[in-house]
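In these records, each integer encodes one residue's backbone shape. Here is one protein:

___
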Amino acid sequence: MIPRHQKYLFGILLVASLVMGVVLWELREHAHQRLIAGQDSAHTSAPIIAPAEEATLMVANDYDGSLRTQVYSLPLPADSSARARAVLSRLLEIYAAPNAAHAVPGGGGSVSQVFLMPAGQIGATGAQQQSGPQLAVVNLVGSFAAGHPSGIETEMLTVLSISGTLHANLPRVTEVRFLVDGRERATLAGHADLTRTYLTGDAAPIAGAH
């Protein structure tokens, strides 16, 4: 026989357990509803997509050793450095495409960064730095240089097409220097000198089609 007082105690504990279960369930539901309400009321915005603009690329052609202007509609950021990287990425995508007239592997990810700074910084005044000519420092990834075809003409076409494309879209860029993985490199693939500064005026195109 179970004593009467133990029966009462057991009954009280059972009722308390049921009440606690109901309370915990209600708290869980309230927390869930608050979470949903918070998600619904949170400010959401669509990712910013740069508007499409016309970009002029200086595309190299190995068959006649030329640079031809080609115009594309590309989403171009407002920031000048980001814009420079965007146009160069498109240029190198063209070179990595099958049957490219200037076949260079690597594609758009071959340009790590593009830095813009006043050309001839020494002695430049503040006004000249804001509106004067610029030097673009193009930082290429190591795999692009490692996979680039070797040869003076093909290497120079790559260098000049990059330089010309930068100037076509950012007219203030008059000089270009190259880094590979953030460091100075002697040549691109054994021939084109990457220790020198290239003038964008050297990248003169022949007549091209849009």
